[in-house]
Amino acid sequence: MKPQTEKTDGAAGSPRENITMSRFVASAVVIAASAAVFALWFFFLSPQARIKSEVKKLISSIEKLDTAATMQCFSDDYYDNSGLDKAGLARIAEMSFDYFDKIKVIPKRKTTFADGRSGGASISGTAIVFTGDSPMKIDFVSEPVRLDFRKEKDGWKIISISGFDRAVIDEIESYLR
Prior knowledge:
Blueprint: H1 15-45, H2 47-63, H3 67-71, H4 86-99, E1 102-115, E2 118-131, E3 134-152, E4 155-162, H5 166-176
Antiparallel strand pairs: 1-2, 2-3, 3-4
């Protein structure tokens, strides 16, 4: 005679069935947690998210007039199409931060992209620089500023900037003379 295997009285399952169910639930929780961690990593720590974070860090350091923090965003290999290297950029940043009392960057549009170990950001908006009570507005809306990034051992660093109108650069330089 075959033993009865169906429950007919509504009693709880055997201890073996409870252990199996517990393992199943635990496995489902581990899988769900792993998926959540991966999604958070991809959303917050993906290359594009890291570049976006570096852009925010750059804007923040400029607004704080902090040359050292600003220059940490740039690669030692920085070189742009106007012939400026990292040392020259540091001198301009230092002179600008000494001259201007306040700088406010108002980005209107930001896009980021990444492909392997390189990436970039395109930013358009307005910067307002203050000397005393007289503000000077610098628009970079019509042609966005492009920041080219490279993944280095200590994070994403800017290797080149392009898109600044030469007239804007000349105007800033005229204030610094």
